[in-house]
């Protein structure tokens, strides 16, 4: 099993969610987060004063999938989250040793 953590633009969430759903991904966790990367924030004018905003709103998407689906899921996320501009986000992949569904006690691939 693999855990995928993605940081994406909030405007891309629905596209990513719908595409993953069509592929058959059933569960995910979505969190509103703030962060900065190469973008280094942006400058806005507030009441006539220039303000630097260095933490931008992003979405953190977490899902656990079976190993066989990894390449396809990564491909879907990359395609749907892409805008071609700095700040499109990152994808992090890590291995999961086991999973347990609390309600039924199922473990491993059956639990996800």
Q: Sketch the topology as an H/E string, one letter per element.
A: EHEEEEHE
Helix content, binned percent: 10-25%
Text of the CATH class: Alpha Beta
User: How many independent structural domains?
Assistant: 1
For this structure, the CATH topology is Alpha-Beta Plaits
Unreliable sequence segments: none
The Cα radius of gyration reads: 17 Å
Report the total helices: 2
Fraction of residues in β-strands: 35-45%
Rough shape?
elongated
Give a quick account of the main beta sheet: strands, pairing sense, barrel closure: 4 strands, antiparallel
Going by CATH, the architecture would be 2-Layer Sandwich
What is the arithmetic mean of pLDDT? 91
CA distance, first residue to last residue: 9 Å
In total, how many beta strands?
6
Q: Give the strand order, joined by hyphens, for the main sheet.
A: 2-5-1-6
Structural class: alpha+beta
Description of the structure:
The chain has 112 residues and is an alpha+beta fold. The longest helix is centred in the last third of the chain and has 12 residues. It starts with a strand and ends in a 17-residue tail after the last strand. It has a single domain, classed as Alpha-Beta Plaits (2-Layer Sandwich). It has two helices and six strands, in the order βαββββαβ. Helix 1 runs antiparallel to helix 2. It has a four-stranded antiparallel β-sheet, with helices on one face. A two-stranded antiparallel ribbon has the order 3-4. Helices cover 21% and strands 37% of the residues. A hairpin with a 2-residue loop joins strand 3 and strand 4. 13% of the residues are buried.
